[in-house]
Structures are given as C-alpha cells and as structure tokens.
Amino acid sequence: MPSRYNAGVSDLQGKTVFITGAAHRLGKAIALAMAQAGANVAFTFHLSADKARQTLQQIQDGGVQGLAIECDLRNDKSVQQAVAQAQQRFGRLDLLVNNAGVFQTAKLEEITVEQWDEAFAVNVRAPFLVSKYCIPSLRENRGRIINLGSLGAEKPWTTHAHYCSSKAALHMLTRVMAKGLAPEIAVNCVAPGMIDAGGAERYPELLQRVGEQTPMKRAGSPQDVVSAVMYFATAPHFVTGQVLTVDGGLGLR
C-alpha cells in the first residue's frame, strides 16, 4: 500500500511547466503557484512585455528558473519556436497548461467573421498546436496537460456564441487527447465560471449580478481556479479526461 494517498505540490520540485498567456491575470497566478511548488516555469506572452518581465522576476525571486517567451499563439511557426526554446532551456517538459484565451461579448447576429475566427484560433487551435509540439517531451516524462475551459462550454450564453462554441470544442479536445495520449500523458480541463481575475474595473455590474446569482454568493477568485489546476498537476496520473467546473454552483441554475 502507498504511504500516502494524496500527492503534494512538492512533487513539482525540479520539473518544468510550460504555460501559455501567463504574463498577467489568471495565467500569472498559475505560473507563480507552480514556481512556489518548486517547478521551473516557461511561459508565453504576446503584447504584454512589461508585465511578462515583472512576472518573470517574481518567478525567479522564488528560487526557481523562469523563461518568458514572446509568442503569437495563432501562428504555427511561432508556437513551434516557443516550445523548442523552452525545451532547449530546460531540457524537458513535464506539464503543459493551455491557459491563453480570448473572451468577447457580442450578439449572435453581430459577431464578425474575424471575431469568430479569433475565438477559435486562440481558444482551440492554439491549445492543439502547443500540445502537438509538447507531446514528445511530455510522453517521455509521463507528463500532463491541463486545459483552461469554461462554464460557457456547457451553457448557451446568447451574447457569447463564438466563445461558448470554441470552449465547447476545447472540452471535447481534452477528452480526445486524454484517450489518444494515454497511458503516457494525462489530460484534464479546468472550467471556470465567473472569475474576478482583475476585471472588476471593466465590468463591475456583471460580476456583482452573476455573483448574486451564484449559490456561493460571489464570483470566483483566481485562487479558486489555481487550486483546481494544482490538483490536476499533482493528482494521480490515473485521473485523465476530466472537466472540473469551478463555478460556485452557477452551472446548477
């Protein structure tokens, strides 16, 4: 019998994590949690160079190694180069967190082709591409992939058709990858509901209204999501193909 039932975050000591879109907000919170757990952290950014430098410094201040990589996740060559850069720097990849995503509000008949394509390019195509190039190293190290989905993948939000559709595709991609990459790689998904990840100034009324509708009577915090991500990062490798909703019960309505 094993000496313990649950893995601890200390199990990430000496491992390498690759995170997309981690210069700020939720991605940054995940990156700092991984660093605090002892992992070396490579992360991508696109237009947030100053914030990426600040995040990188905080990672390194924790006593681990970090690497900030400028990358356009919509571009195949850029993604391939970013993954190669991380592998060259650290020599291995143990965990991939597909965090980057776009969220836009628009009525169905007002969604442009460009908005639709952008949602799918960032929310679905990018996780596919990043995963594709990380698979060899993850397979060698019996690694893990964690995708950031959404409650919107399960609920038809009428002013977010492109977002909901793309995240629904990501949930299915999670299940397909879990089946196709087993037994070497475990693949799971964290699906947040309404999370206050620094957007209170942009849409305070929405956060308040949805928070009041949530059984837990509040919007979620970045830490709520980070805790779920860290669970999948350290859970038994036998746990795969799961979508864990972190929404305070909002999806029950």
Oligomer type: single chain
Residue runs with pLDDT of under 50 for 5 or more positions: none
Strand content: 5-15%
Structural class by secondary-structure content: alpha/beta
Tell me the strand order in the biggest sheet.
3-2-1-4-5-6-7
Helix content: 40-55%
N-C termini distance: 42 Å
List SSEs in N-to-C order. EHEHEHEHEHEHHE
- Please count the beta strands (DSSP E, at least 2 residues each): 7
Characterize the biggest β-sheet. Answer: 7 strands, parallel
Q: What is the count of helical runs?
A: 7
Q: Radius of gyration in whole Å, from Cα?
A: 17 Å
Approximate shape: globular
Question: Mean pLDDT, nearest integer?
Answer: 93
